[in-house]
Design a protein that fits this description.
alpha+beta; Deoxyribonuclease I, Chain A; seven-stranded mixed beta sheet; 26% strand; disordered N terminus
């Protein structure tokens, strides 16, 4: 195995050259993380200060969200799944899923970690595009309905509720080939509908607009539009390998709901974006377990009771009766010496950021509440 110091230098050199990173196999990120190397060099400040500390503190209180441009979820399935589990995201918005009506559910089910659910909206009629969202199943998410037909961008509106917080999260993808003037007109109509919607408004996605270029008329017109609706743009770093900010996180200024928005790992030719929603974390999933304390058995007493069973002393004459004596006698003796104990465990995170896994002993039964099954999504309409 490569020495950790050399591995770290190799990873940081790749991290500083996202184009090179994109050309490497998708297992590269998994192997490097397996060596225990962070996606970014550690902060030079102390452990109780700096960006890393702020993120750790926010993760204890708020909902941790991410945005990635997958450029084919089928091709980058392992990277997306590892991205969720490694960073312990509560919600991940995905643009350019490239999923279809036929394969979308199957691919997303394979990319969704245990304890998460998903919803998606494929592009219909032509290839590419597609939007999806993977979220903890403890977050109640409903598909929202916005009374708008857009031809220059795709959108997936989600009404999310966690504890007492109500959120309207809209995932958007604007293809670079769409006409900008038409997009501005349609997006203005879209903002008129959602800007006054109930709950906290969060709009995320790949807009394919270089908002980092202050000299661009396109960028100025877009920023002027969202500013007229009192909407703030939170991404301040490049999100594309060519150095432009294309993936954006928007929210109403008065909501003051977004904190610690930053750029993280590359997933495709785009870098992921992370941020926190100022709302209490969803309830942690729990697991109910049944078990017996077999190691604490008094073997002498147990064997004595087995020897005094009717099956041994006076066995029945026919096969069915003997089988009944066997089942009832052994079950009663086992319940006497090692009764079934029921416990309920809350699944928590470990110190290194991955979820604890609890594997019950052989012969026990467990039921994980809120597994990876996709729930039904009623629809709420915004007009």
């Amino acid at each position: 195995m490569m020495p950790p110091a050399i591995s770290s230098q190799l990873f940081y050199s790749i991290r500083d050259s996202p184009l090179l990173f994109h050309l490497l196999p998708e297992q590269t990120l998994l192997i490097i993380r397996g060596l225990g190397i962070s996606s970014r060099p550690p902060t030079k400040r102390g452990k109780r200060s700096g960006k890393s500390h702020r993120i750790r503190q926010s993760a204890k209180k708020f909902i941790f969200c991410g945005l990635v441009n997958a450029r084919s979820l089928l091709s980058n399935m392992l990277i997306v799944q590892d991205h969720i589990t490694y960073h312990q995201l509560d919600m991940l918005a995905i643009t350019e899923s490239w999923l279809t009506v036929d394969n979308g559910d199957e691919v997303l089910r394979s990319a969704t970690p245990p304890g998460y659910a998903f919803v998606h909206k494929p592009r219909v009629g032509r290839r590419g595009g597609g939007l999806a969202c993977i979220f903890r199943s403890t977050i109640k998410c409903l598909l929202a309905s916005i009374d708008l037909t857009a031809t220059t961008f795709e959108f997936l509106p989600i009404s999310a509720t966690t504890n007492s917080a109500c959120l309207l999260i809209v995932i958007i993808y604007r293809p670079p080939s769409s006409n900008f003037k038409s997009f501005i007109s349609e997006f203005s109509s879209f903002l008129e509908l959602v800007a006054t919607a109930a709950g906290k408004l969060i709009i995320v996605g790949d807009f394919n607009i270089h908002v980092d270029n202050s000299l661009s008329p396109v960028s100025r017109q877009f920023l002027s539009l969202i500013d007229s609706f009192d909407i703030s743009q939170h991404v301040r770093e490049p999100t594309h390998v060519l150095g432009h900010s294309l993936d954006l996180v928007l929210s109403r200024t008065r909501d003051n709901v977004i904190v610690n928005c930053s750029v993280a790992d590359p997933v495709s030719d785009h870098l992921s974006v992370h941020w926190f929603i100022k709302a209490h974390q969803p309830t942690r999933p729990s697991r109910s377990v049944q078990f017996r304390k077999l190691k604490s058995l008094d073997l002498d007493s147990f064997c004595s009771d087995l020897a005094s069973l009717p099956l041994v002393i006076s066995p029945a004459d026919d096969c069915d009766s003997i089988l009944q004596q066997y089942n009832s006698g052994l079950a009663a003796t086992l319940d006497k010496h090692a009764p079934v104990i029921k416990r309920k465990f809350t699944i928590r995170r470990t110190t290194h950021g991955t979820a604890k896994r609890f594997t019950p002993l052989e012969g026990t039964s467990a039921d994980l509440k809120g597994g990876g099954r996709q729930p039904r999504y009623p629809s709420t309409k915004i007009s």
